[in-house]
Each structure stands twice: as C-alpha cells, then as structure tokens.
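Re: beginner question about structure tokens

> Can someone show what the tokenized structure looks like for a real chain? I only ever see the sequence side.

Sure, here's an example I had lying around. Input first:
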Amino acid sequence: MKTSALESFDTVLVLAPHTDDGELGCGGTIHKLISLGKRVIYVAFSTCEESVPEGFPKDVLSKEVREATKTLGIPESDLVILNYQVRYFTRDRQAILEDMVRLNKEHKPDLVFCPSGFDVHQDHGTIHLEAKRAFKNITIFGYEFIWNNYQFATQCFVELEEDDIRKKVAAMECYASQSKRLYAKDKLIRSAANYRGLQVQVEFAEAFEAIRLIIR
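And the corresponding structure tokens:
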C-alpha cells in the first residue's frame, strides 16, 4: 500500500479569510486528510455580511460554511467562525494575530494552510502575513486563488482522487449565495485540478506554496 506524506501530520489548521476560501484553496486536500483520519480545524475569519448578494439573508454564509465543511467531513466542533469585517483585515491585524496565537496554543497544529504570498486581496494578504508570525515553528502551505494571483510558486503538490474532487465540488455547491461566481463552478474546479495534476503526471492535484516546511 502506498503511504501518503500527509500521514505525518495529525492536526491541521485551515485559515480561511472568508467563508468558502478554504474549500476553494484546499478542499480536496482537506477531504483527503480527513479520509486519512486526521483532524482538520477550519477557521473562517469573516462571514462577509456586507458582501452578501441581494435576496439572501445577511447570515447566509455562516449557514453555508457549516454545510460545506460538513460535506468535506469536518465536524461542527472543529469549525471556528469569527466576525471580522470583510476588506478591513489590515485595520484589525493585531486582533487577528492574537486570535491565531490563541488557536496555536489551543490546538497545537502541525500543519497550517493559509493564502499564498502571491495573493493580492488585502484580507488574504493579512492572513498570510499574520500566519507567518503566529506559526513560526509549524509547516505552512499557501493555497492558490487563480483569480487573485499574478503568479504562483508551485512548490508542493497533493495528489487527489476522484472522490476528493467530487467532495470539493459538492462543498462549493453548498454556497447557493455564491453560485454566480465563476470560481464556484464544477468545470473550473475540475479543470484546475486536472492542470495541476498534469504538472506532476497524476489525474488530479492541488498545488501549494511551501511557505515553511519543517522536517522532524
């Protein structure tokens, strides 16, 4: 039986600036980790109430993220929803850092996922920078958003199976409020996974920036 390098990680922290960011950036890998029996804690820093499309209740994303993470296999007890104002993370940088320090002490993760250093969104950039401060002795991988990155460092690839991609697509389908966004579509999700897989000669993969890789 082939052994996955992911076996070496036990507790994983996914830092999502906004609801759905974690599913989009590393949803397939989240499902794979859970399938391997790993604990994955998902932290959404904002439910983006100011950006909810007309016709939906303001709290719709807090409900949708519960369904999406449940679809990936994350129990609700491992879902953390914070209430930072979308597009104002730079203003709240210190409080965000303190939350990350608390999460580190509470959960002691050995792997952290966050937005990559190439992401131009101001909120994503803040989460990236503060994660590097809060988790200095922990392996950190940066996930990609192809619409936010002018370039990307493909330093790490996680091979995925059809079931991982299917669950990622299903998780995104939980976000009815975001259904008009092109990045939430099945076709784009599968195409991106196929493209990254082609680069390492497998069918599906997600690519990551190796922000910090610690070998013990």
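Each token stands for a local structural state, so reading them left to right follows the chain. Residues 21-35 form the longest helix (15 residues).
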